[in-house]
Each structure stands twice: as C-alpha cells, then as structure tokens.
C-alpha cells in the first residue's frame, strides 16, 4: 500500500527541476507530465513491508498543472505472504496544493489503492497536510474500504476500512555533498478491533541525487508494537524521474 506523497517512492527521493527551469516551463506551458521508475530492496509503507521483506520494482506517471492541481497513477509488485496470491498494487490519485508564503504550503490528496487480483482489499482515503519550512504534518482518513464488513476476518488482518485515521509527521533537511536527510513518524488509528490494531512507526532516510543516474537512498523503518513485525528494517532504493 502506498504512502502519502502522493507517490509511494517519495521516501527514496526524486529528481527535481531547478527553480529557473520550473519558472521557464510555467511561462511556456502550465501543464507538465513526468514519469518515474524505481527499485527498492523492500517496499515499506507506513512501517510495514508490502513485499514480505523482498524487493520491488515500481513506477508511475504524473500530470501537474501550474494552478496546483495534480493527478497520476503508480504501480508496484506486492507479496503479503502466508499464501496470499495478491501480486500487485495499482494506485490512482489526485490532489491540489500551493504555497501560502515563502515558509508555508499545503496539500490535499485523494488516493484509491487497488489490488486487482485480490479479494475485497481496495480502499480509498482523503488526506491533508501542511508544511512549515522543513517540517510536514498531516492526516489521512479512509472513507471507503471493500473490507468494511470484517466479519470472519482475523483481528490482525481486518485493516483499511472506513473510519481509519493515519497521522504523520516528517522533517527534510539538505546536507552537504548533495545528500538529503529525512526523518518520519506516523500513527495508525484503526476503527476495527477497538484499538487492537493501532500502531506507531518511525524511520529515516539518507539520499543522494546522482543527476542523470537518478537518486539513491539508504533507509530505516520500524514499528513500535509487538503484535506486528517490530524488527528494524534496513533497505536501499533507487528512483529516477523523466
């Protein structure tokens, strides 16, 4: 399942146009289209592996307008283990965001998480976040879930239904030598099972922009509840935008 970025590969970084090039592109055409591809040694989403601690190949296509509107799609292989036959995740998303002043900005998002070869696993959420300088905080609310009727489903599997809330905060800092540091934390408040599924997680990433060769990252994630896999996860990633 996809993180909040809107794209799930945001944690491994992405290439960005310079401010001058971006302003020039806006002057010529308010519309822009980009594609991205990435490889990760473990697909982590909100602290939990989506590939049974194995590698994933991911990619997406994005549209953006100078007004702040954006939309796109993103896909990744997944493996939920224990005989689950779900093979891939397909996300569809749209959003709107903008700057309030030089230090503050906001973003609104709508994401649909689809698992076409799974049964009753799709869900959708709406999110809002704000950024002040290098700190971003936000919340996402699940307003639709195919698994809303969780009768007969084990407590540890009945996640992502209407009413779930996810809170998150992150900080991003530029370092010397074209390095960047990102630290993050989140808390999942599940509606089902009266809090028995709720958990907190945290992590950090160090990434480096290698120009035409993309962006490379070293990452750490961990969950803070022993009813889940609470072992620390260390993984590497590569991402490139076109």
TrEMBL record:
Pfam families according to UniProt: Gcw_chp
Tree of life domain: Bacteria
Keywords: Signal
InterPro entries, per the entry: CHP02001
Key word Signal present: yes
Signal peptide extent: 1-27
Protein name, UniProt field: Porin
């Amino acid at each position: 399942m996809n993180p909040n970025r809107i794209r799930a590969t945001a944690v491994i970084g992405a290439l960005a146009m310079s401010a001058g090039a971006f302003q020039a592109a806006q002057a010529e055409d308010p519309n822009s289209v980009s594609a991205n591809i990435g490889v990760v040694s473990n697909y982590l989403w909100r602290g939990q592996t989506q590939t049974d601690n194995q590698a994933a190949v991911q990619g997406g296509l994005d549209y953006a307008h100078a007004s702040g509107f954006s939309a796109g799609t993103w896909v990744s292989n997944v493996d939920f283990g224990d005989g689950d036959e779900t093979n891939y995740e397909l996300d569809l998303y749209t959003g709107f965001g903008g700057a309030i002043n030089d230090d503050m900005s906001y973003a609104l998002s709508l994401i649909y998480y689809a698992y076409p070869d799974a049964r009753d696993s799709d869900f959708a959420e709406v999110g809002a976040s704000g950024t002040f300088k290098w700190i971003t905080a936000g919340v996402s609310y699940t307003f639709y879930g195919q698994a809303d009727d969780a009768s007969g489903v084990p407590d540890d599997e009945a996640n992502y239904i209407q009413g779930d809330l996810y809170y998150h905060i992150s900080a991003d800092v530029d370092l010397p030598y074209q390095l960047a540091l990102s630290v993050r934390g989140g808390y999942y408040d599940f509606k089902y099972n009266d809090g028995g599924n709720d958990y907190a997680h945290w992590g950090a990433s160090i990434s480096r922009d290698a120009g035409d060769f993309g962006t490379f990252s070293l990452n750490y994630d961990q969950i803070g509840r022993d009813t889940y896999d609470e072992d620390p996860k260390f993984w590497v990633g590569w991402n490139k935008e076109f």
